[in-house]
Amino acid sequence: MKKRIFSGVQPSGDLTLGNYLGALRNWAKLQDEYDAIYSIVDLHAITVKQDSKQLHHRTLQNLAMYIASGVDPKKNTFFIQSHVKEHSELSWILTCNSYMGELSRMTQYKDKSQRHGDSIPAGLFIYPVLMAADILLYQADLVPVGDDQSQHVELTRDLAIRFNNAYGETFTIPKTYTSPFGARIYDLQTPTKLMSKSAEAQAGIIFLLDDEKVIRRKIARSVTDNVGLIQYNDEQPGVKNLLNIIALIRDKTTAQVVQELEGKGYKALKDEATDAALSVILPLQKRIYELLADPAELAGIYTSGAERARDIAATTLDDVKQKIGFVL
Ligand code: TYM
Predict the structure, then answer these.
(1) Which residue minimizes the CA distance to atom 27 of ligand 1?
(2) May I ask the CATH architecture of the domain 4-182+295-324?
(3) Is the CB of 129 under 6 A from ligand 1?
(4) Coil, strand, or helix at residue 80?
(5) Which of 51, 68, 254, 266 could form an S-S bond across to 287 if both were Cys, CB 3.0 to 4.6 Å?
(6) What pLDDT, on the 0 to 100 scale, is given for residue 199?
């Protein structure tokens, strides 16, 4: 039997080069070896305020992006999270088995809650538990995510172990799968901050649907330093980030990229990063627009995906309910 993978992306903003390199691209590489289930996690997106029309549109657009990134709907299961109600149910059960202390240690919660002053949505606090429910419902062995989500997968493991210890073997204990480079793509203007689709300032973010001209400009204006040498180290975060982008896209090590650019200036580095980024983004855009032009095909994919997902999720949830003592 193939090992099972589960992962998801929030339709909370337009997808970025970070999402592509940290997640989508790896998904395509794993599809022959694993039984993979991918969700557009709309229940997660509403932890912060969303415009209804945009949420609707982005949910479909995300699905198109998964497919355009080379994740084949014939080999993988795709579904929209709110189509499978078991996610909300298991999330509540796990919430009752989670501690305030462990949830308040989540760095993403600490970052995101700062933007909300005194009115922090409770969903933002509980959100990692919903993510745990997503993963555990499908008995996933591996969770391919960017490095920023590893802490949430660790929490998922803790919750699964806690439940198994209390009620007997119920959940598979999942592992994080990150790319060998530990992919974390940073903002081009603030290269110490994650490139995030929900960030306010957009000059440092490459959106997958940005115009070619805009992408060229954003990379040309990316922040470097005044050391003037192309080296891979933490003291030069802007240069390091561009090297990571090139290495990931070109399937090379960062040492190889540094060697190829040796003796050249930052303009050459930025030109190479631009070429690399455009080499994946332009074909992706073409495919996304083709897919979005055929809503019936997309609907077929997410409807049959939800049916399969529901079957697996319901089996796990029934087992959980029975073990807790609910009358079935
Ligand atoms: P989200 O929607 O923020 O991001 C989706 C995926 O993209 C990765 N990613 C990045 N990787 C590298 N560099 C970046 N700058 C970057 N930005 C984003 C993320 O690590 C992620 O893999 N909670 C999750 C969604 C989720 C989920 C799940 C994931 C919900 N349930 C269950 C896995 C399994 C999130 O907010 O990802």
Answers:
(1) 8
(2) 3-Layer(aba) Sandwich (3.40)
(3) no
(4) strand
(5) 68
(6) 79
